[in-house]
Queue: 3 jobs
Job 1
Amino acid sequence: MAKAIHPHLDRILWNEDQISLRVSQIAAQILHDFPAPSPPPVFIGVATGAFLFLADLVRKIDLPITVDLVRAESYGSGTVSNGDPIISSHLKVDVNGSHVILVEDIVDTGHTLSKLIAHLKLKGASSVSVCTLLDKTVRRKVDIQLVGEGKFYQGFECPDYFVVGYGMDFAELYRNLPYIGVLKPEHYS
Ligand code: 5GP
Ligand code: MG
Ligand code: MG
C-alpha cells in the first residue's frame, strides 16, 4: 500500500524511487568525469539541506573520496533568500589543489552557490563543480561561475514552488521526508 502523503503537503513532485534513480545516474556521470587514477574529488555538502542527497550520492561513488560540509545561511525561517548568505561553518578538509564538488539541495537565486564557489576558489581549489539535486532556473538572479574544468550536475529542474523533504526544510521541519513535495502555503504564512 502506498504511504500517505504528509498532510502539510499539496503534492509530491519526486518520490523515493525517482530520487534514488536520479542519484544513481548522477553518480555514474561523476564517476565517468573523474576516472581513476586521477585524484578523486572532494565532496562538500551544503548543510543542512544537502545532507541526505550527499549521503546517498557518496555511497554510490566507489573512489577514495573525502567528504566535508559547509554551512551557509540566508533564510532565517522565511521562504525568500535575503540575497547575502553568510558562510557560518567552515571546512575541515584542505581543498588547495583539489577538484571540489559542491553538493547542494537546490539552487534558487544562485547567491549561496556563488558565495561558496568564490570561497573555495580563494582556498585554492583547482576546480569547483556543482552538483545540485534541484534547480529552480526560473528564479536565478546570478550566474553560476564554475572554477577551472568544473562541471554542473543537476538532478531535476524544479518548478517555482517552495518545496520540502529529502533534506529540505521549512523552519527546520520536513527534512526527514523521504520524498520531495510542495508545502501548502498555509504552512509557511
Ligand atoms: P539561493 O541562494 O540559491 O537563493 O538559495 C539557496 C538555498 O535556499 C538552498 O540551498 C536552500 O537551502 C534554500 N531554498 C531555495 N529554494 C528552496 C525551496 O523551494 N525549499 C526549501 N526548503 N529551501 C529552498
Ligand atoms: Mg542548500
Ligand atoms: Mg532552509
Note: The chain is about 20% helix and 30% strand.
Job 2
Amino acid sequence: MQWNVLERRRPSAMLAAAPDPVWVYFVHSYVVPDGDDVVATCDYGMAVPALVERDNVWATQFHPEKSGTVGLGLLTSFVSAARGSDLSAPLSGHSPRHPRMTPFTVFPAIDLLDGRCVRLYQGDYDQATTYGDDPAAQAAAFCAEGAQWVHAVDLDAARSGLQTNLDAIAAICSVAGDAGVPVQVGGGVRSVAAARELFARGVTRVVLGTAALEDPDLVDTLAASHRVAVGLDARDGEVAVRGWVEGSGRSVADVAARFVDAGVDALVVTDIARDGALVGPDTVGLAALLVDVAIPVLASGGVSTLDDLTTLAAVDVGGRSLAGAVVGRALYEGAFTLGAAIAAVAAVTDPGSSGTHGHGDGRPGTAGSRP
Ligand code: AMZ
C-alpha cells in the first residue's frame, strides 16, 4: 500500500488535465498482463499496468477514491463520459499549476432547536447533540475566528413550518452584523411572510428547501428582490422535505434544473446520510452536479477533516468549482478550528495568499451586491 507515480503511455480522457507527476494510491493485490489497452503503468520493479482503457471500459489498478484530486478528476471524467457530456473541456483534479480564481467559502453552521445550538445525526430529531444554549455567543465565536458567512437552520421550523427561533436568529444576526459577517438561514421558509420575518431580523440570504419542491414559484418571487439559496437535501439520491421526514420522489439534479434561471445565489446540497455523521462529503456526487447544473453549489454534510474541505475546494470540473461548504459537527467536536479551515481552503484556492481573505458568497465577483 503506497503512493506511486503513473508513467503515461498514451493520452486518455482519464488523465485529461492531471498534473505531472501523477501521484495515485495503490493497494496492490494482483497484476494484469500488459497490452495495447494500457494507458499508464507504475514502476514496482517492473512496469505494472495501472490504467486500462478499451472503448468505454476504464479500469484502474490504483484506488481513485484514495487518490485525492487526481482520483476525483478521473471519477468525474468517468461520470461525464458515461452521461455523454462534452469532454473537450478537460475535467481534472486541482493542480497547483492552475489555481482556481473563484472563492470557496466555509460556512460554520448553527442549527437551532428550541433556542439551543444542536447537531442532529443524519437529520434525526431523536439523535440531537446539544452544543450550547447561547446561539449569539456561538456566532460571535465563529466571527472572531474569521467567519466569512454564518449558516443557521431553524430545525423547529423545518419540521413544523412554525418559526419559533426568531429571537435566536435575531441575536445571531446582531453579533454577526457587528462583525460585518452575513448570515444565511434555512428552515421553514415557505411563504413571503416567513422570509420577511427573517430579512427583518438582519438575515442576508434565506434557504428554501421544502418550498423549492412544493411551491417553486415562491423561489422566483423572493429571488426577484432578495437573496435566496435553494436547499436540496437528499437521501439515497431522493430530495427530502419537511425536516427530512418526507421524501419527494425527485432527484437533486431534476429539482435543481428548475432554478437555473431563477436568479438564486446557490444550491445548498446536503447528503442526509452524511450529515452530522463525520464520514466525509460526497465529493464525486457534488462534482457530477456541477456537470449538470449551472448554479453555484455549496456542499453540506459529512465534512470531518481538513482534507475533506481541501478536497472539496479543489474540485474542478471543466473550470467549475464548488462555491463553499457548510461545516457543523466537525467544528463542534474540535476536529479542527474554523480558522484552520479557512486557512487550509485558502492554501488551495489561492496558493499565494497568507490565508486571509475577504467575504466570499458563492457568487463570483458579486459579493455584497444585494441587498
Ligand atoms: O436536520 C434536519 N432534519 C433538517 C435540516 N438541517 N431539516 C431541514 N434542514 C435544513 C435544510 C435547509 O437548510 O438543510 O432546513 C432547510 C430547509 O428547510 P425547509 O423548511 O425550507 O425545508
Note: DSSP finds twelve helices and 19 strands in the chain.
Job 3
Amino acid sequence: MSAKPILKVLSGEGVWPPPAWLMRQAGRHLPEYRATRAQAGNFMSLCLNPELAAEVTLQPVRRYGVDAAILFSDILIVPWAMGQGLTFAEGEGPRLPPIRDRAGLEALDVAGAAAKAAPIMETVRRVRAALEAEHPTTTLIGFSGGLWTVACYMIEGKGGGEFKQARRLLHQDPAFFGEILAKLEAATLAYLLAQAEAGAEVLMIFDSWAGQLPPSAFRKWVIEPTARLRAALKAARPDIPVIGFPRLAGPMLVEYAASTGVQAVAMDTAMDPVWAAAHIPASLALQGNLDPEALLAGGEALQREAQGILAAMKGRPFIFNLGHGVEQPTPPEHVSALMRLLRTA
Ligand code: 1CP
C-alpha cells in the first residue's frame, strides 16, 4: 500500500484529514512564480524549459506542503505539438489559427507530436526525482485537456467566449468534427502515456467546457471519448489512476462517473457537495470544490465554505481542492490558512 495519501484515496481508501492540492497552485498568485516566469520570458518558453518548469511545479509544494504537484504545462500543448500555432498574448489568453476546413485538419501532425512534447517529459522526470528526494509523500499529477475542451480552442482559435463555432460544427458537420477529435485523441493518448512513463503517478483530464453541451452531445463528445481514453490508458498502465473534471456537468456528473472508468471526479464550484455525495458511489473518490473567490476573500468566508465541504465529504474517499483555479490576486497567506484548517480537520 502506498504511503502517499492521494494514491490511497484514489485506490478507494478513506483518508482523514483529507489530502489537498489546488488547481493552478503554481501560478501568478505566487511571487516566486512571477520571478521564475520573468526569467523564462513568456509562458510558452516557461512550459518548454524543463529546469524552470520543474521549479515552478515544486514551488507550491515547498511553500504550502500540498499533497500533490501538478505538472506545470497547459492543455493546449497537445495542439501546439501537432503543429497548430499557439501564442499567449499578455493578459489575453491563448490564440491559435482556428481549424475550420480540411486543410487545417490535414495539417495536424500526430506522429510528430511526441518529439515536440519531449521537453515536457523532461520536466516530469525532474519533478518526480525531486519529490522522491525531498517530498516522498507528495504525488505527481500529469494531465491533458478533455478532447471536447481542447477541440473548442482548436476550432474557435481562442478562449473567453461560449465556443459557438465549435458547438455549431459538431451539430452541422459531426463527421468532420469527429475527424478532428480522432487526431486529437491519438495525440492526447500518446502524450498522457509519455507522462506516465516519465514519472507521473496520476493523470487528470480537464474538460473545462463540458458544461456547454446538451446531454446527447455530452454523451458523444465528453463521456465516450473519455471512456475510450481511459480504457486505452488502463490497457497500457493499469497502475495509473485517472481524475476526470467535466466542469459544469451538473447532473450529467452521475453518468460521467458511472461510464468513463475514472477513479475520481473533480467537482466544479457550482456543484453541491451534498448532492454529489448522495449521487456518486463511494467507490469513486470526489475532489473539490472550494470557490476560488472564497479563498481569495479569506477569513470567515473561507472557513465557513471549507467546513461545509468537509462536512459533506467526511466518511468517503476525498481530495480537497478548489472548484476552479486559484485567482491571481489571492494572498498566499489565505492558502496557508486553508492548509492549516485542513490539517486539523
Ligand atoms: O501568463 C501566464 O502565467 C499564463 C497563465 C496560465 C497558466 C499558469 C495559462 C494560460 N495556463 C497555465 C497553466 C495551466 N493550465 C496548468 C498548470 C498547472 C496548475 O494547475 O497549477 C493547468 C493544469 C492548465 C489547464 C488549462 N489551461 C485549462 C483547464 C483548467 C481550467 O482552468 O479550466 C484550460 C481551460 C486552459 C487554457 C488556458 N491556458 C491559459 C489560460 C489563460 C487559459 C484559459 C483561457 C480561457 O479563458 O479560455
Note: Residues 5-343 form a domain with the TIM Barrel fold (CATH 3.20.20.210).
